[in-house]
Specification:
alpha+beta; about 30% strand
């Protein structure tokens, strides 16, 4: 009876070994059924999105972008361009043998802009030829002038009265006014008579720009 039990156990064990071998052969050949699916976290770990790919420039957060890509609402106002300004020469203020004029720049645009420093100025004749030398800059402390739409800044234009100085004179047709850091000038008709162009005390002076339309 004991011999019979051992024989039955041996036969059962042999059958299990044979089934295991057949199952192993099926897995290696790919015929034993589909291969196991990857876990749901595998794709996310590898950085694969289940949806269509999103361009990297749109997918990044705002913290990943360069500062220049941020909105412009927080940026300070930029400088005024010539096309955004009008120019005028105010009423003469005589005194102590001097002639003084405010040269006024007004913001005619719809945005706020800034001016800093000295404007350029040149007297010209009817043909557009320059009369005299470039104005000299009066020492001063430049400061940024912020111009809202419709606001103005002015610089003082000063020269010795030709009747007092004895300088050689010419009568300009216009004054060309160039805003700071710009190349295009604004043309203002000149109606204040002769100006010094050469000789003694023929220099013309300009002050820094400041808010308003004159002293």
């Amino acid at each position: 009876m004991a011999n019979g039990s051992r024989h039955a156990t041996a036969v059962a064990a042999g059958g299990l070994v044979l089934l295991g071998a057949l199952a192993s052969c099926g897995t290696e050949s790919g015929t034993a059924g589909p291969s196991p699916r990857p876990s749901a976290s595998a794709g996310r770990t590898a950085g694969v999105s289940p949806h269509s790919a999103v361009p990297s420039d749109a997918a990044g957060s705002t913290n990943d972008r360069s500062p220049t890509s941020a909105g412009h609402t927080d940026r300070p106002a930029s400088r005024c361009r010539t096309a955004e300004l009008s120019a005028a020469v105010g009423r003469m203020d005589p005194g102590a043998g001097q002639r003084n004029f405010p040269v006024v720049l007004t913001n005619v645009s719809s945005r706020t802009c800034t001016l800093y420093g000295y404007p350029g100025a040149a007297f010209v004749d009817a043909a557009g030829e320059r009369l005299g030398r470039d104005p000299e800059r009066t020492p001063g402390d430049p400061a940024t002038v912020t111009l809202r739409p419709g606001a103005s800044a002015w610089a003082g234009l000063r020269y010795a009265s030709p009747g007092v100085s004895g300088a050689r004179t010419a009568t300009p047709a216009a004054l060309l006014v160039t805003p700071p850091d710009e190349r295009e000038a604004l043309k203002v008709p000149w109606k204040a008579g002769a100006v010094p162009v050469s000789g003694n005390a023929s220099s013309v002076f300009l002050t820094v720009l400041q808010p308003g339309t004159g002293p």
